[in-house]
Amino acid sequence: MVAARATMDMLLDKIADQGMQSLSNDERQLLDEMSRKLRGG
After folding, report:
1. Which residue has the higher pLDDT, 41 or 29?
2. Cα(24)–Cα(41) distance, integer angstroms
3. Which terminus of the chain, N or C, has fewer Cβ atoms within 10 Å?
4. CA-CA distance, 39 to 18, in Å (whole number)?
């Protein structure tokens, strides 16, 4: 779970620095999956 949190933090930092459009398709999919899990879905 720590690795997942670190990955999420890295993606959120990238979004903050460069915008959502800077994410690759794989990164966006990973962020969506992690977000769903955190929301209990």
Report:
1. 29
2. 23
3. N
4. 25
Confidence class of residue 36 from pLDDT cuts 50, 70 and 90? very high
Residue 20 tokens read as 């959502």
**Distance from C-alpha of 41 to C-alpha of 22, rounded to nearest angstrom:** 26
Q: Which two tokens stand for residue 12?
A: 């959120």
d(CA 19, CA 39): 23
Domain boundary assignment for the chain: 2-38
For 34, the enclosing helix (H) or strand (E) is: helix 25-38
User: Closest by alpha carbon to 34, among 17, 23, 5, 15?
Assistant: 5
Q: Judge whether residue 28 has pLDDT over 90.
A: yes
